[in-house]
């Protein structure tokens, strides 16, 4: 993928989700906890690095979680691109769910589990965050980013719920629509531009590089 020239005063964000992890395979809630990338997760991240090798980035900003940092490093390869972290890009804090399998969460927290998937605007969190809180910290991050970078390509490495929340901000949609398509697969690539505060999606959750 060659660098796309959008014009002056246009900020381009290349947003990727971390590669598949062992807990993803086990359908185990990660949130602020962590697990190692699988062989597929590593291979897909390397493939994405190859896909983006000709795209010039002025900065890479990653969630500080191990799975995102490892993904960022694999995508970056040997290139000399500044890599920093930002806590506001961390996955939703899932509180008491973290470390539990999907079936365990469904059994132990049936009402909040149902809200999480079917009424996200009503999800109150189980000792963690709400989706609104994720949205608020992401919006703050984007506002700070626009003050720092007026134009150029910035690579963002983050998590599924954060990216779904980003879609809502781009579409000016409500949290009710959080789980609308597309699905955010591991190392999926989303590209958006920000110009004069307007966010526009150009590529959504692309996994053409994945095995």
UniProtKB/TrEMBL annotation:
PROSITE patterns: PG_MUTASE. It comes from the Bacteria. The active site is at 18 (tele-phosphohistidine intermediate), 91 (proton donor/acceptor). The keyword rRNA processing does not apply. Substrate binds at residues 17-24, 67. The keyword Metal-binding does not apply. GO terms for cellular component: cytoplasm. This is Phosphoglycerate mutase family 1. It comes from Mesobacillus selenatarsenatis (strain DSM 18680 / JCM 14380 / FERM P-15431 / SF-1).
